[in-house]
Structures are given as C-alpha cells and as structure tokens.
C-alpha cells in the first residue's frame, strides 16, 4: 500500500526545497569569509631535493586544518633541525567552528596555487589566514603594515570622521579586554578588530592603536577601510541607514587597495577583487530562491489536483 497523497506531497516538497535552501545558505556564507584579501609570498623558492621540507609542510597543514574545527587560533611547528617549519592559522572571532574549518581547509590549496613553493607564505581571506615559514626566515615587526584597502567613495563633512574616530577609539579601548577580538558601532559606523591569538593585552592594544592611526591617515574620509598589520587588523564601514546588528569585516566593493612590506624577502602582497565574489553569491541566492518559489508553486498545484481527483473518485 503506497504513501497517502498528502504525505507524498510533503515528502516531495521537503526533498526539493531543503537542498535549495541549503545551497542559498552556502552561497551566501561562501561569498563572505572565503574571499581573498591578499597574498604574501617569499621571493625565495624552497630548495628541497630530499622532499624533507615538503613532508614537514604537509604535516603542518594537516595539523592546522584538524585544529581549526576546535579552535580559532593555533600555532605549531613541524619537522626538525634545518627542516623545521613554523606555522599558524587564525579565524575571525565571529566565525563558528564549522565556518572556521571550511575557511582554513582552503588555505593550503590557495598557498600552493598562488605562491607555489616559497620558503614562507601568508594567505589572508576575509574570515581566516594561514602562514608558514622555514626556520631562520627573517622576522618583521608586528606593527608592520602588510595590506590596506580604502574605499574610493568618500563622504564630506566633519560628522562622519567624528563618528568613525569615536567608534575606532572604542575599538582601541575594548580589544585588549575582548580576548583580542572586538566589534562595536557608533551611529552609522561599524568597526571590527582582531589581534593574533598569542599576543598579550598590552601588545594587542598597541597594535590596534597603530592600525587605527594608520586608518585615519591612510583612508582619510573614505567610507570604509581595512588595515592589516603583521599582528592585528582593523576595519571600519559607514552605513548611512544605520550600522547592522551583525559582525562583518567586509568593506565596500568599490575600493582602492595597496600593500606594503618592509621585508625584502617577501614580494608585495597582492589582492583579488572581493566584489565579484559577493555579487556572484547574491546572484546565485536570488536564482535559487526564484527556482524554489516556482518549484513550490508547481508542487502545490500538482498536489491540489491529485487531492481533488481523489475526492472526485469517491
């Protein structure tokens, strides 16, 4: 004896609509935290005739990925002696464990694709970053600016800059006591900041203060900006209709970007456009939403017709 028509309709509706909603959710999230912000690749390629470095790096990546499902920050090393490789990952503080894992698991692939096989590399996505470096790689200051992005759109008048500076000052004061991650808003300006996971409170405050000062100087009256230093980053966004009640570090899609690094061992970090990824995600969500609506209408009509036919047979 088959399933009743009513039960079949609900079952079929679930099978059609649930995957569509899941795809919409995935397209929305993937268009945010997995966008490439910048890459930093050492100029010197890794000499590895025995494969010892490659083995150590692969083991390092495996450990970092496995830890990303449990923690937002993890630092470790792999190999021994001259083949020792240090590395870490960090996820944005507002990401879930699942999103953190999904973000970090993409980074080794991107490192290989964008950098090849250098002695050190760093890849920053909107939601996470990963770096590795072989033993003896020259260190840079934690306050060194790696990348900046300032919106080409500006807003005149002292009111905006006052609101932005008030929000950024609150970020400076709060980030040290917020476990190195802090978000807040003032009027129409939303700010976000994060320090590297093992940075002490004093050093975190100093890093954030330096990043804020650079944002004020470098971005001027730009409606949004991102400043990435070696040990911390901050971002701000202006929303004329009021700051949203959600965490976000994405900046305006119409932005000018530049980068800076004092270490001659690194090539200049580069960035990919984030606007296209966000627009693609929104387009996919709209298309899938429309398909879900059409599918729902067709299923309801078919079920109604079957129910009416069954009623007429009695």
From TrEMBL:
Keyword terms: Cell junction, Cell membrane, Disulfide bond, Host-virus interaction, Membrane, Repeat, Signal, Transmembrane, Transmembrane helix, Transport
Gene3D superfamilies: Gnk2 domain, C-X8-C-X2-C motif (3.30.430.20)
Matches recorded under InterPro entries: Cell2Cell_Antifungal (IPR051378), GNK2 (IPR002902), GNK2_sf (IPR038408)
Biased composition regions of type Low complexity, renumbered to the chain: 247-268
Biased composition (Polar residues): 269-278
Coiled-coil zones: none
GO CC terms, sorted: plasma membrane; plasmodesma
Start and end residues of each Gnk2-homologous domain: 34-137, 142-241
Domain of life: Eukaryota
Pfam family, one: Stress-antifung
Topology in the lipid bilayer: Single-pass type I membrane protein
Location in or out of the cell: Cell junction, Plasmodesma; Cell membrane
Predominant localisation class: other
Disordered as annotated region, ranges: 245-278
Membrane-spanning segments: 284-304
Annotated GO biological process: plasmodesmata-mediated intercellular transport; transport of virus in multicellular host
UniProt similarity note: Belongs to the cysteine-rich repeat secretory protein family. Plasmodesmata-located proteins (PDLD) subfamily.
PANTHER family assigned: ANTIFUNGAL PROTEIN GINKBILOBIN-2-LIKE, PLASMODESMATA-LOCATED PROTEIN 2
Name of this protein: Gnk2-homologous domain-containing protein
Organism of origin: Cinchona calisaya
